[in-house]
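[worker-b] picked up task from shared queue
[worker-b] task type: protein-ligand structure
[worker-b] ligand name resolved to zinc ion; SMILES cross-checked against name lookup, match
[worker-b] sequence length check passed
[worker-b] input payload:
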Amino acid sequence: MGISKVLFLVFCLFQLHSCQFFSSKEESSSNTDTSVQPIEASYLQFDENLAYNYIDKQVSFGPRVPSTVGHKACAEWILTTLKEMTDTAYIQEFESITYDSKKHKGKNIIAKLNSKNPTRILLCAHWDTRPIADHDPKNPTGPILGANDAGSGVGVILALLQNFKEKPITLGIDIVFFDLEDYGQPENSGLTPMENSWCLGSQYWAKNTKHEFLPRWGILLDMVGGKDATFLKEETSMNYASNLVNRVWSHGQKLGFEKHFRGESSSVIDDHVYINKLAGIPTIDIIHYKLNNGGFADYWHTHDDNMSSVDKSTLKAVGKTLLNTIYEEDKYMQ
Ligand SMILES: [Zn+2]
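[worker-b] inference finished, payload out:
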């Protein structure tokens, strides 16, 4: 995950014109309603152990920093896994120059389930890990493992595919794992603030992807595995897809996960901002943000973002809530 919007606004003081990008408030006509349909309990059996193992597997490659061996190996594993579980899976390659003037070949990893169904949704997460632990007090220059910040979103989405195999679904599902989300300019670098240095993979995808059938809405997962994670109603998500936010949060709360799905607000820059603005898909972000404007978790962008930061009960809460939302869409809203 990138930076909080508070920091972005500081950037904007230097470059006022750039704020326009984030200033408009739109409510998409394709937002879904907030009705809650009962879904049989057998459809909501999310395997948090499988999600955990998928995270552990990603971490086993080491940091997944673009242009490194671990990044390449993990991309191959994700692609192979997606090919086994979906109709089609491929890598969208793109070239990017990061804030430090380095050139990288990015890899967005894309898959489609029920690719012929024009009624589709989008599930997405970033899979790259931050090249520097710039919030780590001891070793701020080394790369992070990103168990929660990268691994968790991918792990939950891959685990959901097992559900869709066991309890078949007809809804079309687009899956995108974005690269180069987390290579943004450090907020404490002292460099001239640079806008749009985060979320490079989603920016590329949103600008360059041709959709045969545009997903009606999307859900972005980022840092969804932390112990006692609190998911707040995020500002851009509410601006573009408030009905979907309220629907997902309502499911989460009714399933008993009200300690995670909270009514308070947050505001972050993440891949969903570009999906909303540039791809026109109303998309929400489920992301751990501490209460009382407390920012991200203490281990965010440190070397403590390892497997010990991942809690299976949080993975289960997110997985079950998504299953309820997605099977509801499949059964009642196509
Ligand atoms: Zn991050």
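[worker-b] attaching auto-annotations
[worker-b] The longest helix spans residues 312-332.
[worker-b] releasing lock
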